[in-house]
Design a protein that fits this description.
This protein is an alpha/beta fold. It is about 55% helix and about 15% strand. It has 4 helices and 3 strands; from the N terminus they run βαβααβα. Strand 1, helix 1 and strand 2 form a beta-alpha-beta unit.
C-alpha cells in the first residue's frame, strides 16, 4: 500500500464523492487502501446500486474491498477521536 484513503462518503450525489471513486477506479488496486466507517459503507453500497451506468460494478468492487471501520458518531469530539483511530489503522496497514 502506498496511499491510505479515508472517506465518510455515504452517497454519490455530490461531485467530490463521485470523483473520488472515478479516480480510485483508475488506480492500481495494490497501491491504495480505502478506509470507510461501517455505517457510511452500507449507505454508500445502497446508493451505488441505483446507478445505471457501466461504473456500478467497479464502484461496488472498490467499496466492498475497503477496510470497514467501526461506525462513526456525529459530533466534533467524536470526529477528532475517530481521526486518531483512522491514523492508527492506516499506520498498521502500512506495515503489512
Amino acid at each position: 500500500m502506498d496511499v491510505a484513503i479515508f472517506t465518510m462518503a455515504d452517497y454519490l450525489r455530490t461531485g467530490g464523492n463521485y470523483r473520488l471513486f472515478k479516480v480510485l477506479n483508475f488506480l492500481p488496486k495494490n497501491k491504495y487502501v480505502l478506509l470507510i466507517p461501517q455505517n457510511k459503507k452500507f449507505q454508500l453500497i445502497n446508493d451505488i446500486r441505483f446507478l445505471n451506468n457501466h461504473e456500478k460494478s467497479s464502484f461496488l468492487e472498490i467499496v466492498n474491498s475497503a477496510i470497514t471501520l467501526p461506525p462513526i458518531k456525529e459530533g466534533a469530539l467524536n470526529y477528532t477521536k475517530y481521526a486518531y483511530m483512522v491514523y492508527r489503522t492506516a499506520k498498521n496497514w502500512a506495515r503489512l
